[in-house]
Amino acid sequence: MAYEIPVTQARAELADLINRVVYGGERVVVTRHGKPLIALVSAADLERLDALDAPADDQVIGAVSRVHEVASAPREHRRFGIAAEHRGPNPS
């Protein structure tokens, strides 16, 4: 649960609020007219939030970039009746 505080009061108590977040591990929600306006969270919480926002495509691309192409053995070609082999854009 987050600690809620009006923006007018938060201005006067900013240093205390920062200490509550950093040392007390609290999350502070600053409100205006009773509605959430901003949240003060620790840097560690922010990193976790950023990680959740990372596009799934980046994770897939990272995983695929670690996959290395392995040439199949000639006996596998005979075993499965493979007559041709794709050698990619730069055949060697």
Number of domains: 1
Radius of gyration: 27 Å
Main pleated-sheet profile: 3 strands, mixed
Q: Regions with pLDDT < 50 over 5+ consecutive residues?
A: none
Mean pLDDT: 79
Number of helices: 5
Q: Name the structural class.
A: alpha+beta
Give the neighbour order of strands across the main sheet. Answer: 1-2-3
The helix content is 40-55%
Q: Beta fraction of the residues?
A: 15-25%
Named CATH architecture:
3-Layer(aba) Sandwich
Structure overview:
With 92 residues, the protein is of the alpha+beta class. It has one domain: YefM-like domain (YefM-like fold). A hairpin with a 2-residue loop joins strand 2 and strand 3 (35-40). The chain contains five helices and three strands. The protein has a three-stranded mixed sheet with strand order 1-2-3. The model has no long low-confidence stretch (mean pLDDT 79).
